[in-house]
């Protein structure tokens, strides 16, 4: 049993020490280049360089937002007449293509951003565009936001009755 432990530690030590090997392709890594820096210094200053310690460092990935599920579902439900182009539930963004509302004559495109996990008007932001480039009135945008908020409240009430 002790022999297995020693053998395992030896293999582990060899594996970790192999991580520190010099990977330069030049025969002498200390040779200076035309700009006066060594290849080792260039490797250490490379912004794309990664090490094993990057796993324990801060996470530099996209900012993740907690999205209210009722607002998310209500946005997709209210804007169901528009073709969905992109959705990102991690950042809370829904982008649609152009489409005509039922009974309407003008084509619209919507971008919805849900920025907070609360079921509140401050959590919802809707931007509308028309295909002809005509401005969308604030009343139309407000009406779409109100419809989404009303539908979200309906979904929450229906969910609590279960």
TrEMBL record:
The keyword Hydrolase does not apply. Residues 20-39 have a biased composition (Polar residues). Residues 1-20 form the signal peptide. Residues 20-45 are annotated as: Disordered. The keyword Signal applies. Keywords: Signal. Pfam families: DUF3576. This is DUF3576 domain-containing protein. The lineage of its organism: Bacteria, Pseudomonadati, Pseudomonadota, Alphaproteobacteria, Rhodobacterales.
């Amino acid at each position: 049993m002790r022999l297995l432990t020693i053998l395992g530690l030896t293999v582990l030590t060899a594996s970790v020490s192999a991580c520190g090997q010099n990977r330069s392709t030049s025969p002498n890594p200390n040779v200076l280049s035309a700009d006066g820096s060594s290849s080792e210094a260039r490797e250490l200053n490379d912004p794309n360089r990664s090490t094993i310690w990057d796993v324990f460092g801060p996470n530099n990935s996209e900012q993740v937002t907690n999205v209210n599920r009722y607002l998310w579902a209500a946005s997709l439900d209210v804007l169901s007449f528009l073709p969905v182009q992109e959705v990102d539930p991690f950042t809370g963004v829904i982008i649609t293509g152009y489409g005509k509302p039922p009974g309407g004559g003008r084509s619209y495109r919507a971008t919805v951003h849900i920025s907070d996990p609360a079921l509140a008007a401050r959590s919802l932001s809707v931007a509308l565009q028309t295909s002809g480039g005509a401005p969308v009135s604030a009343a139309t945008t407000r009406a779409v936001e109100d419809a989404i908020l009303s539908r979200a409240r309906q979904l929450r009430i229906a969910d609590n009755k279960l």
